[in-house]
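#struct-pred

JT: dropping the chains for the assembly here, can someone run the whole complex?
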Amino acid sequence: METLVYIALFAPFASSLFAALFGMSPKQTFVGIVASLLLFASFCASAMLAFHVWTTGAGIHVTMMDWISAGDLHIPFGFVVDQVSVTMMTVVTLVSTVVHVYSIGYMDHDKSFNRFFSYLSAFVFSMMILVMSDNFAGLFIGWEGVGVCSWLLIGFWYHKEDVSREENPSISPSWAANEAFIMNRIADLGMLIGLFILYWNVGSLQYDVVFAALPDLSGSVLNAAAIALFIGAMGKSAQFPLHTWLTDAMEGPTPVSALIHAATMVTAGVFLVIRANPLFSMTPEVSYFIAALGTFVAFFAASMALVNRDLKRIIAFSTLSQLGYMFAAAGLGAYWIALFHLAAHAFFKALLFLGAGNVMHAMHDELDIFKMGGLKKAMKWTYIYMGVASLALAGIPPFAGFFSKDAIIETAFNEGTLFLWVILVVTAGMTAFYSFRQVFLTFEGDERYKAFGIHPHEMYKYVLIAMSPLAILAVIAGFAQGTFEHFVTKLLPDYHMSEHTHHLSMMLGLIVLAFAVGGIVLAYRKYYKGLKRDKKLENSFTYKLLANQYYIPNLYEAIITKPYAMLSEMMWKDVDMKIVDATVDGIAKFLYKSGDASRKMQTGNLSNYLNWMAVGSVFLLVIAVISAMFV
Amino acid sequence: MENILSILVFFPAIAGLLGFVVDKESARAYGITVAAIEFLLSVWLWFSFDTANAGMQFVELIPIIPDFGISYYLGVDGISLFIILMATLMTLIGMMSMSITENIKNMIITLLFLEMTMVGVFVSLDAIIFYLFWELSLVPMLYIIGAWGGPLRVYAAVKFFLYTFTGSLIMLVGMLFVAYVYHNLTGVWSFAITDWYALVLPVNYQLWLFAAFFVGFAIKVPMFPFHTWLPYAHGQAPTIGSVILAAVLLKMGTYGFVRFSLPMFPDASVMAIMPIAALSIVMIIYTAMVAYAQKDMKQVIAYSSVSHMGIIMLGIFAMNAEGISGSVFQMLSHGIVSGALFMLVGVIYDRRHTKLMSEFGGLASVMPKYAVIFGIMLMASVGLPLTIGFVGEFLVLLGFYHVSPVLTALAGTSIIIGAIYMLTLFKKSFFGPVTNEANKTLKDLSSKETWSLVPLVLIVVWLGVYPKPVLAPIDNSVKAMLAFMDAKAITQEAKDMIKVSKTTLNRGEVK
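RK: done, full complex below.
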C-alpha cells in the first residue's frame, strides 16, 4: 500500500521532470502523452487507495523522512491517506488526467507545449502534497507550491503586453500572475500565523497531535488559530476581499483555468476548513462568520456573473460563487456536504471550462459571448457537454449539482439561519440564469460571429472523448450521495437534518428548483432567440457597477497599489537619500570641513601661535573655574 | 590534520603571495584551483566535524603575548562551521563566474587575501585575532570596489571603509574594556572569548558593552539606519565584490551578535530585544519598500539584502533555539541566494552594460535558461517552501512569535512585500514583449556562467528539501548556547525570556 501512496504522489512529479527535460525544445507530442500516462497512473493508484480505505475503513500513514528539525520543532515529510485525503486525491488526479489529455489537443499549436506540461504536472504534484500531508507545515508546502505553479501558468503567455484596464480587465497575463501570487501571499501570512499559534500552544504541527490537544486550549487561542487559518483559506479560495485575482487569472490557458482555478487549487481553502474541522467545530463564532462570508460571496460573485460578457470570466465568477456555497456548508458544520459539493463541482466545473476552451479554440480566442451565437451547428458535442455542465451547475435534477447544492441550502435552513437560506436560494436562481444566458448566447440564436469572419469547427475527437468521464460524472455523481456520506463520515462528523427539516425537505427542494427553473426560463426568453441589446439597461448604474466588478479592482489600485508605489518612491528619495544618508554624509562633511578650517591655524607664524595659546589658556582657565564652582 | 583551521586560514594567503609570480594568463586558473582546494579543505572539515558535539572543535591555542593574554586561538562549532563553508564556496563560485579581464592577477590575489580574512573572522576565538581579521577584511574589499568599480567607485569605497571602520573602533574599545574587567576580577589578562563567556557582568556593564559591540556589528549587518553605505558599495562594486560582500561580509555582523553579544551579555541582550526588534522591523519593511522603488536591478537586490538581514537579526533575538538556529540557517541561505542573484545581475550587465530594468523586458523569451535560474533564485529569495529560503525565514518567524505575536505579524509582511518587489523586477525584466532592439540578439548563459550557477541551484533545492545535515549541527550548538545563557543570566526577566530546548545535548558546555 505504501508503494501506491508514493506512486500517487510522485508520478506527477516524474511527469513534471520529464516534461521539463524538453522544456526548451520545440513541441514533442509524446511529452504530452507520457505526462498524461503518468497522471493516469497516479489516478489509478489513488483509486486503488480509495478502494482500500473503503474496504478496510482504515487510513494509511507513511513518514518519508525528516524535513525541518530545530529547537523542539520537528516536521517530517509525512503523508496520510484517509477518507478525506483520498477523496481529494481521486478527484484531483481524475480531473488532472482529463485536463492533461485535453491539453494535448488544446495546446497543439503552442510553441511552449512541453513547458506547459511541465508546469501542469508540477501543479498536480504540489496539490497532492497539499492534500496528503499529515501536518500543517506539509500542507503549507503544497499551499505555496500550487501558488507558484498557478503563477507560472497564469503568466504562461508572458510575452503579452500590458494594456489598459478598459481594454482588458486583467491587464496582461504576467500582471494577473503577479496579482494572484501577491494576494495569496497576503493570506499566507495569516496561515503562517495560524501555524505559529498552534505550534506554541501544542508543540507540534502534526494533525493528529494538534487535534488531540485542542480540548486543552483556551477559547481565545482556538479562535485566534481558526481565524488565522481561515485567512489563509480566504486567499487560496479567493473569498472577499481577496477575490479579484481569480477572475484575472483567466488570462492563463483554459486547461489551467479548468484544473487550477475551478476544480482543485481554489478548493484548497475549503479543504483546509474540512481538514481542520475539529478546530472549526470548536469555534462556533468563527464558523458562523465563515458561513456568512461564504453566503455573501456566493451572492456577490453571482451578481457580477449576471452581466459579464466574457465567457471565461462568467465561469470564474460562478466558481467563486460555488466556493461560497462550500464555505457556507463547512461553516455551518456540514463538512461532508461541503466535501461532496467540492467533488461534484470539480467535475462539472472542469467540464464547463474545457467546453469553454473548445469554444475559444473554435472562435480563435474570442471570448465575448456577444460575438458568438448559433455555435450549436458546428459544435454539437461541446454544446451537449456545456449544457450538461450548466444543468448540473444550475442544480437541475438528476444532475450532480442538484444533490450537492440542495444539501447545502437545506443545511442553511436546518441551522435556522434563514437569512443565509434566502440568499442561497436566490443565488441558485441567479446561477441558473447566468449559466443559461451564457449557454444560449454562445450556442443558440443568430450567428453573430460571421461578421468577424470566423469559421468555427468542432474540437478534435480524442479531446471530446477525453472529456466524457467528466460529463458522465456530472450526470451521475449525485446518485452517490448516500454512499459518499457513509464513506467520509467515518472521519468527518456526520451531519443530519432535523426531523422538522426532514419533513419539509421536499418542499424546500421544490422552492430551490423553482428558482433554478425560473432562472433558466428567464434566460431562455431573453437570449434563446438571439441577442437583443437593451442600451438603456446597459447604461444603468447597477449594470455598470456589476460589469465593473463593483469597481473593486479600481479601488484597490487607487487605495493600495498607487499609494504603495508613491510611498516607496518617497521612502527612497526623501527619507533614505535626503535624511538617513544625508545625515551620514553630513557628519563626514562636518569633520572634513572642521579639519579644513582648523588647518588654517597652522600658519607657521609664531605670533599667531602665541595668540592661539592665549585663547587656549583662557579657555582652560574658565573650565577650571566652572568645574571648581560646581564640583 | 590537527591544524586544519590554520591551514584553512593561511593557505589562501600563502597561495595569494605565490600568486605574484604566476603568469598573468594563468592567474585565473590558478585562483580557481586554490579556491577549489580551499573549498575541499572546508568540506573535509565538515566531514571530520563531530556533529554530536555542540562545543568548539579543532581548537588551536598558541600564546602570542602571554602577558596580555593574547593568543592565537582558533576553533569551530556548529554555528561557524557552515558560514566558513559558505565563504569558501562563494569565493570559488564567484571566481569561476568572474568576467573581469583587466588586472585579473591583482583581482585573484586580492580575493585570496580576502578569503583568508573571512575564514579568519569565523574561526577566531581570541578577540584580538578576531578584530585583526575583521579589520583586515576591509582592505581587499576597499581595493576591489575602488579599483574595479563603477564611476562613483572612490566615494563608495571610502564610505564603506570609513563607516564600518568607525563602528569597529567602538567595538574595539568594548573589547579592551571587557579584557580590563576580566583582569580586575581574575588578576590575569585574557582575550579568549571562551574565557570571557565565563564572566558574569553586572547589568549596567553589560548594557554599555552591548552598546559598544552593537555599533560595530550593526553597521556591518547593516542595520537601519546605518545601512546607507551598502547601496553605494553594491552599486559601484564589480559583480564579484557584491557577491562576496552580500554573501559573506555582511554575515560577520550577525555572526558577531551570536558569538559575542548573546553569550557574553545575556541580560543586556534580553533587554535589547524590543529596540532591536523595532529596528529590524523598520529595516524589513522600509528597505523592502525602498527596493520596490528602485530602477536599477542591482539596487533592488542590494536593498532586498538589507531587508533579509532584518529577518536574521530578528531571529537572533528570539532567544529560543527555533529562532536562532533559523537565523544562522538564514545567514547561509541569504549568502547563497543573494550571491546568486548578484551573479545573475552581473550576467546581464556583462551583455548590455546596464542594469536598468527599463532597458529590458521579455528576456524570458530571449534567454530562457537565464530566466529559469533567475526564477528559481527569486523563489528562494521570497522564501518558497522546499527552497533554502523558506527554512530559515519560517524558523525565524516561528521563533520570534514566542516573543511577540504582533511584531511577528509585522515582520511577516516581508513575505508579501518581498514578493512584491521581486515579482515586479521579474515582470519588468523578463516578461512582456521584447521591445528593445538590443535585447533581441542576447546570448543565453554561457557554459562558464551555467557551471557557476547550477551548483548554487542544486544547493538551494537540496537544503530546501533536506536541511538536516546543516541544520542539526547548528541547532546543537545553538541549544547549548541557550542553555549556557540561561544558566548565566542574572536577571529573572532574562531567565524567563531565554527558552532552553527540551532536547538540549551536553547542557551548559559551551566552551
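JT: nice. The longest strand of chain B covers residues 57-65. Chain B touches chain A through 70 residues (CB under 8 Å).
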